[in-house]
Amino acid sequence: NNLDQLYRQVIMDHYKNPRNRGEMDQENKLVVNMNNPTCGDRIQLQLQVEDEKITDAKFTGEGCSISQSSASMMTDAIKGLPVKDALHMSEIFSDMVQGKDYDEEDLELGDVEALQGVCKFPARIKCATLAWKAMEKALNEQKH
Ligand code: FES
Ligand code: FES
């Protein structure tokens, strides 16, 4: 249907014109590497966190169109968010890609919603969540 078509366009746009792709200069950035063991695709995420708020996010890596477009959408979505909201959004996203009901609450999901229900096969959910898992890891490691 039309909504599926629109979502597909949004996904392809993020894949072809990735937002926030590249390296950050800041010295006190958080850097985390994550790979998907089932295919070997990998992502490196760099975050800048100030006063419990994500002020910048960038990524590099190689992978399938879903993993790359998801990283582009994710970095866009979390910029400017408090750390706890970014972690909460990751939970919502995980439900969303699996086609479960999710509670949007007050979070602006934006383009991220284009990935809802995209994963018909459980193994492929890892493609969509790779960047989000990297973000969770970076933020959780930072607390220690
Ligand atoms: Fe390809 Fe979900 S990532 S079907
Ligand atoms: Fe490797 Fe999607 S096939 S991340």
Automatic annotation (TrEMBL):
Transmembrane segments: none
Superkingdom of origin: Bacteria
InterPro entries: NIF_FeS_clus_asmbl_NifU_N
NIF system FeS cluster assembly NifU N-terminal domain boundaries: 7-127
Listed NCBIfam families: SUF_scaf_2
Protein name (database record): Fe-S cluster assembly sulfur transfer protein SufU
Protein species of origin: Scopulibacillus cellulosilyticus
Name of the coding gene: sufU
